[in-house]
User: Which sequence fits this backbone?
């Protein structure tokens, strides 16, 4: 959930073989990613009992910075960190910081499965905005896929309804959609940064800048809380976020994105089960039908892109 995976994650033994040879290994790593994503949603909701989203992001980013800097030093990659294109780094991290804060807010206000359904509009936002912001060629297939996906969001949100576990459109739904849009801008800016900047630089500035943003936003009123009771949940948020990216990246080293990406859609039924077991959240027909449309729009877009790449 979240931002683009870390392409510097090491390949497993057997590096150099065709990625297409190991789809089962990719599936196993994606199972790990799905568990991390679900655990991050649960731990974020539990940590919110003591912390606001800015405080949560500050502590998460500090832990992430320690881990990332330690890993870069251990791997001898700190020399790859360059203070170039700081403006684009800053813009990327503002988008990700805003998106992540909105995501943590939405998991405290909405059923977890609904949050993930909104989050899956992220690729559709990218498909629609990339021609405008990245100069990519406009394609009608992307427009059609986005239309299907956003129809699904209307089915999930049911803005014509006044209330209910799923129906209605309020601050929680706006936060979830805002998070997806923030993640879309993160993906696009990461794509631009990746043309000239190393992943070491991207990760370094991500954790350091977002820790600074969290400190400013959480401490502006002078009443910043330390997560004494929820510290284990905060640590789990940080490590699950890093673990999810590592698992996705490793999966991509075992099989191409056209195989790995659809596996990520299993996050939705998994978090729905977690929500039912842990919080008694019901599975309403509108959520199931709307989520199917969102995933269908993503699948059609992925299929069209795969055909263009093959042709």
Assistant:
């Amino acid at each position: 959930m979240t931002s683009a995976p870390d392409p510097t994650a090491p390949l497993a033994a057997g590096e150099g073989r065709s990625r297409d040879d190991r789809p089962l290994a990719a599936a196993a790593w994606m199972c790990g990613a799905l568990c991390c994503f679900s655990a991050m949603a649960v731990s974020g909701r539990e940590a919110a009992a003591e912390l606001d989203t800015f405080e949560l992001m500050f502590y998460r980013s500090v832990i992430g910075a320690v881990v990332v800097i330690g890993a870069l030093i251990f791997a001898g990659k700190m020399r790859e960190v360059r203070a170039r294109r700081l403006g684009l780094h800053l813009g990327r991290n503002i988008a990700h910081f805003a998106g992540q804060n909105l995501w943590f807010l939405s998991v405290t206000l909405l059923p977890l499965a609904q949050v993930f359904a909104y989050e899956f509009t992220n690729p559709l936002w990218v498909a629609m905005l990339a021609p405008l912001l990245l100069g990519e060629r406009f394609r009608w297939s992307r427009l059609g896929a986005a239309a299907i996906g956003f129809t699904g969001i209307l089915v999930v949100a049911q803005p014509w309804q006044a209330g209910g576990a799923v129906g209605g459109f309020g601050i929680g739904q706006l936060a979830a959609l805002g998070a997806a849009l923030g993640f879309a801008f993160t993906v696009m800016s990461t794509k631009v940064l990746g043309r000239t900047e190393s992943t070491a630089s991207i990760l370094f500035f991500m954790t350091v800048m977002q820790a600074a943003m969290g400190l400013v936003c959480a401490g502006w009123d002078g009443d910043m809380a330390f997560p004494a009771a929820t510290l284990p949940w905060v640590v789990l948020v940080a490590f699950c976020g890093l673990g999810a990216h590592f698992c996705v990246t490793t999966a991509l080293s075992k099989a191409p994105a056209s195989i790995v990406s659809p596996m990520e859609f299993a996050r939705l039924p998994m978090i729905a089960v977690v929500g039912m077991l842990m919080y008694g959240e019901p599975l309403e027909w509108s959520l199931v039908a709307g989520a199917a449309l969102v995933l269908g729009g993503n699948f059609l877009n992925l299929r069209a892109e795969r055909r263009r790449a093959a042709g």
User: Anything to note?
Assistant: The first helix runs from residue 23 to 47. Residues 22-310 form one domain.
